[in-house]
Amino acid sequence: MSTQPLKRYDSPASALLTACLSTYFFLAPIAGWAYSVVSGSKASTDAAVAVLKKGGSAADAMVAAITTQNVWQPFFMGIGGGGLAVVSQNGRVQFFDGREEAPASATPTMFLSEKFEGGKIPYYPERVTGANPVGIPGTVALLGTLHKRFGKLPWKQLTAQAALEAKNGIVVSKHFSNILVDEFERLTQFPYSKLLFSGPDGGPQAVGLSLKNIDLSRTFEQLGAEGWQSFYTGSLGRSWLSAAQRLGVKINQNDLARYAVREAKPLQFNSFGLSYYSAQLPSAGSTVLAGYMRFLEYYYKSHTVPAALSVERFIITLETLRFYQKLRDENLADVGYAKFDPQTWIGSAKEKAFWLEISNAIDTKTKQLKERVLEGRRTPDIFESVSSLVSGLRKETPSGESPKNHTAHLAIIDDRGLAISLTDTIEQHFGSALAVPGFGFLLNNELSDFTADTDHPNSPKAGKRPRSNMSPTLIFDSKKKLLGAVGCAGGTRIPATIAQFLDTYFVHNLSALEASAFPRAYFINASETIVIENSMPNFIELGLKQVGYKVERGEAESVLMTAIRRKAANDFTAVSEPPS
Ligand code: GLU
Asked: What pLDDT was estimated at residue 524?
């Protein structure tokens, strides 16, 4: 682990608003201070930096950042949700699973109902709304565990900023307001949720208005004063759970008391001479990410690397994602339920055979491409350079509002070499739409990440954690020097986004800014249709159609957060996609 001082980079949202949607912001190092913080919220980054300045560790800063972000972006993440973290200190890398868990009341048939055609509760809004999909929240236990292991400052200090900001009120951003308008109908089913997010006219809080959440402020004060365990086994836990139960939430005190963060070895894989550590099951996203990066190395041993902005490159991306997403969909689930162990799969004969299949699929498509009209119509004659593309990127959100991702990712690296990559979520925007009366926080709807079928590895069951796409990751060089802390929000797009970033950054050598801003392509779930971001040049769309893809354009829906550097560099560049 390097002990070199790092320059400090932050990613305040205000800088992002005036620049493009993906940028980095550099602040000169302050004598004696060297750290990197990246989050999707200026307030959250500021809260983390303030803690680091006081001598706190990355774990302390993470507690302050997550709780503050809960105040500013309650629709994404927070203490009613769950998260996954990969942490490294002195060369030891660990995985912490604070994913929500199904309570004792959960059953394999919980998403089935004869009332609906096909016998399954329709996904939106029915399956994701109200008490049924609420899992036992894990975020507080995750933060508490990280603090216990790696904290330096008293816990009480770390929730104080969030309590203050909830009391003083936040200004509703355009992003917040857009999402609120979309989800207001779900919220209005529950009087307290409606009250929490309504403006003076009873409609959704408008842009620019101050939104106070006195109940949430009190919750953070109590959490600070009584300690994180109180959320599970103390008076805080008893009282918030009683309030939630009155709304029909089927979690009991035993479920809450039983909840524990799981600690495990991270999923480890190598690619292009770098060593990656990512989330274990119940994350399946990390298997897709590992597969993508490892396959690329294999494939480019026998194939020329195409230009980053070429139809061939997107064929390679899409076919690799197609195969790995199918593998994930059919096989992966929580520990003990998945059909194979992702760590054992890596380096196995099965992986090699799988690569051959992907390679053949790519070769078929690229052959098709060569036989068609596109040969010779690649990057140089259409675009002056990657930077000319990047300067006009993500045109679909010119006002600076965020893409419609769910979830938040944060990466914090402190001056003592502690690095934390952490993704936190309440699943959908506004989670279950149930806010806990008197406590000011929203409950997740994470159990809707289970498959509704009763006979799938990812079927619901008491005590089980739903499969996730979240893929917080740390990257090291061969000398164990930390090169990056990456992660992303965006549901099934999470691993695909991180993979495309790492591909363009490490294989195509784009800068961190260019790589994060580069247009991306996705398979959406099992569908044959691919989605390309609106910023994708037309010639790529045309080429992809030529080789048989059904192509749709769409808004950017994933949000990448990364602190990364090149092997020779000591400084991290923090890149945060859109602001709040
Ligand atoms: N629930 C999602 C997952 O764990 C994260 C939420 C999202 O980004 O859509 O994969």
From this structure: 74
d(CA 414, CA 412): 7
How far, in Å, is the centroid of ligand 1 from the Cα of 496?
Answer: 13
Q: Is the pLDDT of residue 349 over 80?
A: yes
- Nearest-atom index, ligand 1, CA of 449: 1
Respond yes or no: is residue 407 known to be catalytic.
yes
pLDDT over 70 at 495, yes or no: yes
Would you state the structure tokens that stand for residue 512, as one six-digit string?
Answer: 């961190």
Contacts with 492 (C-beta within 8 Å, 6 or more apart), sequence order: 325, 469, 522, 524, 525
Q: Report the separation in Å between the CA atom of 14 and the middle of ligand 1, taken as the mean of its atom positions.
A: 26
Cα–Cα distances in angstroms (integers) from residue 256 to residues 104, 246, 281, 320, in the given order: 10, 16, 21, 40
Structure token pair of residue 578 = 């859109």
Residue 27 has pLDDT above 50, yes or no: no
Which pLDDT belongs to residue 404?
A: 61
In angstroms, the first-to-last Cα distance of the chain is 33
- Which of 407, 425, 504, 562 is the catalytic position? 407
Q: What is the pTM of this model?
A: 0.92
Q: Would the CB of 407 count as within 6 Å of ligand 1?
A: yes
Distance 405 CA to ligand 1 centre (A): 9
Ligand 1 centre to CA of 562 (Å) is 18
Task: Dump strand ranges (E) for 121-234.
Answer: 170-171, 210-211
Ligand 1 atom nearest 407 alpha carbon? 8
pLDDT band with cut points at 50, 70 and 90 for residue 373: low
Please state, in angstroms and rounded to a whole number, the distance separating the CA atoms of residues 421 and 407: 14
| C-alpha distances out from residue 259 to 111, 253, 390, Å | 23, 10, 45
Choose the residue to mutate in 179, 404, 445, 494 for probing ligand 1, maximizing ligand atoms within 8 Å of C-beta: 494
- DSSP-assigned letters across all residues of 373-414: TTTT-SHHHH-S-HHHHHHT--TT-TT-PPPS---EEEEEE-
Task: Judge if the beta carbon of residue 489 lies within 6 A of ligand 1.
Answer: yes
What pairing do the DSSP bridges indicate for beta strands 550-554 and 521-523? unpaired
pLDDT in tens, 85-96: 999 998 899 999
What is residue 403's predicted lDDT score, i.e. its pLDDT? 55
